[in-house]
Amino acid sequence: MNVPNTKPQPAIRTGDGRAWRRIRRFLQELPAWMLILPSIVFFTVFSWQPLISGFILSFQQTKGYDAVKFIGLQNYIDVMSNSVFQQTFINTIFYVLWSIVIGFAVPIIIAILINEMIHLQTFFKFSVYFPSMVPGIAAALLWVFIFDPGPSGLLNMLMNKLGLASAAWMQNPDWTIMLIVITMTWRGFGTSVILYLASLQGVNPELYEAASIDGAGIWKRVWHITLPQISPIISILLVLQIIGVFQVMYEPLTMTEGGPNNASMSLMLQSYFYAFRYFEAGRSLAVGVITFVFLLLFTIIYFKLNKKFNGDD
């Protein structure tokens, strides 16, 4: 007679099952973690660690690039009470305003004109984008030659041919920021034109046909159809342009070194001078943190506009 085995079997512990599932999930995700690990290390070492270290160093008295002692907000007080900083902040605002006046409407107008063309669209797309491929320093040096105040300056040579007097150009403090913004617009507007063109391709052509039937001219079609249809990308690119111009540095560094009489000095250029000309790292980082706060505000606006553009509200 067989007696059934009534010996109780050991129960599987819930904790062991959960641990095994975690291990199995980790092994499944391991290839993905291996792919993103270099990026995590790169951003940690070259982005986040310097950012945090710089923020901490901005509250320190420094000797060269070494921290000496904690002084709280003294670097910020010294920087913001400096008349040069006050002028620099106003200059940065003027950079942004001039970039909106000169550089904001230009890409929209060029994109609309190219979009209306039937022939040679590819040629004009390449033509407007080509300056964007020129390195920034090279473009700035090119415009230095154009705006040279001497008789050998390209623009002065042209004016002399027309019987006009030579001008000081970059040496005139009333013109300096405007001329630097023209340089920046020439080099950077091509990318915006391509983005606007891509957005214009998504406008429903039936809207233009209906407007034409109603007798609307080209200006009314642009004002009532084109601009409202691409308004989301216009808003986003406006914020991105403000963020970019707020960080302007190498154009005034290359073309004027912040002159004449600090007339073209920007916040980032002042931070650069503090760090590499005066070797005052604490004050340099204080200016950088102040700039970062403004850029953070603009970035928040950008993300809100981007969220609205993607319909995530």
From TrEMBL:
<keyword id="KW-1133">Transmembrane helix</keyword>
<dbReference type="InterPro" id="IPR051393">
    <property type="entry name" value="ABC_transporter_permease"/>
</dbReference>
<keyword id="KW-1003">Cell membrane</keyword>
<feature type="transmembrane region" description="Helical">
    <location>
        <begin position="30"/>
        <end position="48"/>
    </location>
</feature>
<feature type="transmembrane region" description="Helical">
    <location>
        <begin position="177"/>
        <end position="198"/>
    </location>
</feature>
<feature type="transmembrane region" description="Helical">
    <location>
        <begin position="285"/>
        <end position="303"/>
    </location>
</feature>
<feature type="domain" description="ABC transmembrane type-1">
    <location>
        <begin position="89"/>
        <end position="302"/>
    </location>
</feature>
<keyword id="KW-0813">Transport</keyword>
<dbReference type="InterPro" id="IPR000515">
    <property type="entry name" value="MetI-like"/>
</dbReference>
<comment type="similarity">
    <text>Belongs to the binding-protein-dependent transport system permease family.</text>
</comment>
<keyword id="KW-0472">Membrane</keyword>
<feature type="transmembrane region" description="Helical">
    <location>
        <begin position="126"/>
        <end position="147"/>
    </location>
</feature>
<keyword id="KW-0812">Transmembrane</keyword>
<feature type="transmembrane region" description="Helical">
    <location>
        <begin position="230"/>
        <end position="250"/>
    </location>
</feature>
<feature type="transmembrane region" description="Helical">
    <location>
        <begin position="93"/>
        <end position="114"/>
    </location>
</feature>
<dbReference type="Pfam" id="PF00528">
    <property type="entry name" value="BPD_transp_1"/>
</dbReference>
<protein>
    <submittedName>
        <fullName>Sugar ABC transporter permease</fullName>
    </submittedName>
</protein>
<dbReference type="InterPro" id="IPR035906">
    <property type="entry name" value="MetI-like_sf"/>
</dbReference>
